[in-house]
Amino acid sequence: MYQMDTTLPADAVDFIDDAKLEAMVAGMREDPEAVRRVIAKSLRKEALTVEETATLLGAESPALVEEIFEAARTLKREVYGNRIVFFAPLYVGNYCMNDCKYCGFRRSLTSTVRRTLSDADLVREVEALEDLGHKRLILVYGESPKYDPDFIAHTVRTVYATKKGHGEIRRVNINAAPLDEAGFRTVKQAGIGTYQIFQETYHKRTYAAWHPANTMKGNYLWRLNAFDRAFRAGIDDMGLGVLFGLYDWRFEVLAMVTHARYLQEKFGVGPHTLSFPRIKPAEGLDLNLKWQVTDAQYKRLVAILRLAVPYTGLIMTAREPAELRREVLAFGVSQIDAGTKLEIGGYQETRKEGEQTLNREQFQVGDTRSLDEVIGEILEGCYIPSFCTSCYRLGRTGEHFMEYAIPGFIGRFCTPNALLTLSEYLADYASPATRAKGEALVAAEVEKLEPKLKAEVLDRLRRVRAGERDLHF
Ligand code: SAM
Ligand code: SF4
Predict the structure, then answer these.
(1) Which ligand 1 atom sits nearest the alpha carbon of residue 94?
(2) Is the distance from the beta carbon of residue 187 to the nearest atom of ligand 2 less than 6 Å?
(3) Distance in angstroms (rounded) separating the CA atoms of residues 371 and 365
(4) Whose C-alpha lies nearest to ligand 2, atom 2?
(5) DSSP assignments along 346-375, one per residue
(6) The pTM of the whole model exceeds 0.90
(7) Distance from the CA of 184 to the center of ligand 2, in angstroms?
(8) CA–CA separation, 268 and 261 (whole Å)
(9) Which one of the ligands is nearest to 286 CA?
(10) Is any ligand 2 atom within 6 A of the Cβ of residue 96?
(11) What separation in Å is there between the alpha carbon of 236 and the centre of ligand 2?
(12) What b/e readout covers 192-219, taking b as 16+ CB neighbours within 10 angstroms?
């Protein structure tokens, strides 16, 4: 059995100063002039300091908050264009030795149906996702000796090897409990894209209240330093996050920015993505929480994160309801999931859309629409749905990615790749209505490209229509 080395390295640091961040929250006052100065800095695409982020969090009046929203919309357009990247989560197994009090997989819940996908089940799940048109997955695991680094690496390789028709998964990210350095090296060798893990709450007293001390996850510092170990093991593509609703959302935003800046300063690479899920109903969870984040606060936190870390991707999951997702997309979200099923083995099962059984999944999904439906809707909003996986496959990650995240890169690479992967989706998987909307959008977007690139993209689009695939820039 794999023996994890849980000794923290001598330089493991607790870079979250709870008292300092609490004092910043307590001292927040609205200062319109300061807010506008910070917005101007962010619009120059400079990352904000923790103090500047606090200035934005202090804005309360609707007009000033609207200025922040507008700045976030502008920054999103300028840095990311109108692309939205699609992915799907795939739950591999829900055995878990932790007892996080918000989670439907926690060990003390005897009502939870426990299951780990067999290789054959995993292949069937992946094929079902490929049949929908997905190209990027995030594999999710409980924390259990069953899911050791070799097991995780094996499942990642199995997913890459599973192909059906034109279907293939081109990028496999993972969300798994923190590993030791050797473990991270093992999963890196299997070709993972992003390693994602959420601190849940950065506030230590709250962390201790939700994660019992006699569990692996009860060790705050082991989790906080996970990215340090991952980085040393060669993983330079990391996704951090907070489970909003456990503690004051303003504290958590300051802490996320602290974490992002810490990684940037220590390793020269900030996080690739930030996630900001809100806590949702789960088996045996009383959602009457003191710190539950309202929709209005949620919008503010997304817009402020956009402004604080201009080059970091923002992920908004299907935990949120469709109407809110529609509105918040414009504030700078770069990735969403759709058609999400959290039940282990849920993609190959035929159940009615929207039907959920809480004792078989981690929490309740808010947006239960199909991938085709969500794509159809965002096409109407003139976004370009993208299944692009090019940067990671061409080694444009970590500091190399940061180099590329410069003006011109999006137009030269991301938009063409989005149009090519969208065209593949339209040809292979879309409903007739979505296909018609998509083809109109592709035609309009191609017209906006500069002449040489336009000719190249038109040529590749012709080749996609003729049956070639994966013609990325
Ligand atoms: N077991 C690993 C861990 O805890 O890091 C893997 C991830 S867990 C299956 C994925 C994430 O789901 C957690 O990090 C947590 O933030 C989130 N989650 C757990 N319970 C939730 C709930 N009731 N509502 C929303 N998100 C939840
Ligand atoms: Fe286990 Fe992760 Fe759920 Fe905690 S959040 S109980 S570690 S699956």
Answers:
(1) 9
(2) no
(3) 14
(4) 142
(5) TTTS---TT---GGGSSS--S----HHHHH
(6) yes
(7) 19
(8) 9
(9) 1
(10) yes
(11) 24
(12) bbbbbbbbbbbbeebbeebbbeebbbbb
Ligand 2 pocket test target in 92, 94, 100 with most atoms within 8 Å of CB: 100
Q: Which residue, judged by its Cα, is nearest atom 6 of ligand 2? A: 106
From the list 144, 210, 132, 208, the residue with the least C-alpha distance to 176 is 144
Please check whether residue 70 is in contact with residue 321, taking contact to mean a CB–CB distance below 8 angstroms. no
Q: Do 180 and 199 contact (CB within 8 A), yes or no?
A: no
Point out the ligand 1 atom lying closest to the alpha carbon of residue 103.
20
Q: Find the 175 Cα to ligand 2 centroid distance in Å.
A: 11
Q: How far is ligand 1, taken at its centre, from the CA of residue 334, in Å?
A: 21
Closest ligand to Cα 283: 1
Tokens representing residue 470 in the block: 């994966």
Answer for the pair 152, 174: CB distance below 8 angstroms, yes or no. Answer: yes
> In whole angstroms, what is the distance from residue 471 CA to residue 473 CA?
7
User: DSSP string of 21-51?
Assistant: HHHHHHT----HHHHHHHHHHHHTTPPPPHH
Place of tokens 């300028």: 78
Residue-wise pLDDT tens for the chain (473 aa)?
788 888 887 778 899 999 999 999 999 999 999 999 999 999 999 999 999 999 999 999 999 999 999 999 999 988 878 899 999 999 999 999 999 999 999 999 988 889 999 999 999 999 999 999 999 999 999 999 999 999 999 999 999 999 999 999 999 999 999 999 999 999 999 999 999 999 999 999 999 999 999 999 999 999 999 999 999 999 999 999 999 999 999 999 999 999 999 999 999 989 999 999 999 988 888 888 999 999 999 999 999 999 999 989 999 999 999 999 999 999 989 999 999 988 888 898 755 555 556 666 677 789 999 999 999 999 999 899 999 988 878 877 666 555 456 667 777 888 899 999 999 999 999 999 999 999 999 999 999 999 999 999 999 999 999 999 989 88
**Helix axes 32-43 and 62-80, enclosed angle (nearest 10):** 10
170, amino acid identity: R
For residue 384, the SS3 value is strand
Backbone angles phi, psi at 120, to 5 degrees: -65, -40
Element spanning 168, H or E: strand 167-168
Residue 148 φ/ψ, nearest 5 degrees: -80, 175
